[in-house]
Amino acid sequence: MKAKSTFGSSEFSAPRIAPLNAVLRTSTAARRPLRRTDIATADGIYQSLAATLFARAAAIPQAVVRAAVTLCGAGSAGISILEQPADGPARFRWTVVAGRLSKSVDFSTPADFSTGGVCAEREEPVRFAFPERRFTYLQGLGVAFVEMLEVPLHVDGRSLGTLWTAAHTVGRRFGEDETETLTRLSAIAGTSYTRAR
């Protein structure tokens, strides 16, 4: 079985693609213990984001993904923007990335076959366990996606894309506190896109 990639002219093999329900784990978050967050560190990060938003809104997206790595204890974090090229299908492009995947800026995924697509369609936070079992092109990035947490990103009430975090080590899981943190950071990022216009 071959699946055509929308982010290049090459094709990738996709043997034994897992069904979506095999990698989707959103309902398990409520059963996970809360992770202790350093309140002073969190307050300092949010204060810095507020100051940056006022002075340099364009710098907020990168600051937000760095904050997501720190506050969520993630291996990587990024913002995926939904794009609709005139000459091809819609795709999500990673416009800013922090952490182990920081060199993957501009990586793009099919809008109709991606974690971002699932999040945007459902309009709610989604969590994936080993998503590369379904979205096999992620295997080419060279790191394990033990878990991904993704939340919608809106600008002026319009869906712009998603904000995501990824865990690359076995045993690291995201719970309700990380979902709340990422949702808060997504709102800050959305405000920055509005101010930067």
Report on this model:
- The structure is a single chain.
- With 197 residues, the chain is of the alpha+beta class.
- 31% of the residues lie in helices and 25% in strands.
- The strands form two sheets. The chain has a six-stranded antiparallel sheet with strand order 5-4-3-8-7-6, with helices on both faces. It has a two-stranded antiparallel sheet with strand order 1-2.
- Strand 3 and strand 4 form a beta hairpin.
- The termini are far apart.
- The N terminus is likely disordered.
What keyword list fits this structure?
197 residues; alpha+beta; 6-stranded antiparallel β-sheet; two-stranded antiparallel sheet; 5 helices; 8 strands; 31% helix; 25% strand; globular; disordered N terminus
Give a quick summary of the entry.
This protein has 197 residues and is an alpha+beta fold. The protein contains 5 helices and 8 strands; from the N terminus they run ββαααβββαβββα. A hairpin with a 7-residue loop joins strand 3 (76-83) and strand 4 (91-99).
Instruction: Give unreliable regions as ranges.
Output: 1-14
Calculate the mean pLDDT score and round it.
87
C-alpha-based Rg, rounded: 16 Å
Q: Determine the strand fraction and express it as a percent band.
A: 15-25%
The major β-sheet equals: 6 strands, antiparallel
Structural class designation: alpha+beta
Tally of DSSP helical segments: 5
> What is the helix fraction of residues, given as a range?
25-40%
> Could you spell the SSE succession in H and E letters?
EEHHHEEEHEEEH
How many individual β-strands?
Answer: 8
Cα distance spanning the termini: 44 Å
Shape: globular
Q: What's the arrangement of strands in the largest beta sheet?
A: 5-4-3-8-7-6
